[in-house]
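Researcher: Structure for this, please.
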Amino acid sequence: MSSSYINAGALLLLVLMVSSCNPRIADGIRKNDLRKDVALVTDSGTIVLRLSDSTPLHRDNFIRLVNTRFYEGVSFHRVINGFMIQAGDPRTKPGKDSSLSPGNKIPAEIRESLFHKKGVLAAAREGDATNPAKASSPTQFYLVQGRVFSDKSLDSTETFRLKGRKIPAAQRQIYKSLGGAPHLDQNYTIYGEVISGLEIIDKIASVKTSGKEGGDKPLNDVRIKKTRLIRRK
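Model: Predicted structure, token format:
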């Protein structure tokens, strides 16, 4: 047998061994992907996200979109300083068909342990009137900037925005130090958080926008240039 056949056979064996160590566990996802973080490279800097294993439907969907480069070219189309920055609408890609369908909604994965502190990654969705099950958009997400709260303002949020639901003591402390958007708790699926680049959220949130009447759209586009999975540090 010639050496070329031997080398080809050895290469095939190596490929099979590597694939068996990192098997495909779903369409567009390999096992090792679940142990990686996500880097969003934007016009304003890089944000690194860590996805939550407690929300596997949203985690896997986001990984799949990153692996297929879905978000590359998408802009932050809704920005509210002191609240959040939102992206993921495929219609914001340059030159894309405005009638492009985003796909099916994702069932809600709302967890008591996940709350809207500054830097969390959460799924946007339609309102309760048309979406009482709180199902998530398959592509649109937001990153919370929020603000720092006092005990008095948290008490008011519990009474008037959370319909009497009490914010756990540990979460209250974070809202009073780091900040966030507690009025959204238990209404949207949170599926990750920023582990590097909180300052980039602040930078994007500070851009000039069209205001509420214009949909809070930035006057100058802020785009996601690149997305990739990276090794956890």
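Researcher: Any notable elements?
Model: The chain has one domain: 46-231. The chain has a mean pLDDT of 92.
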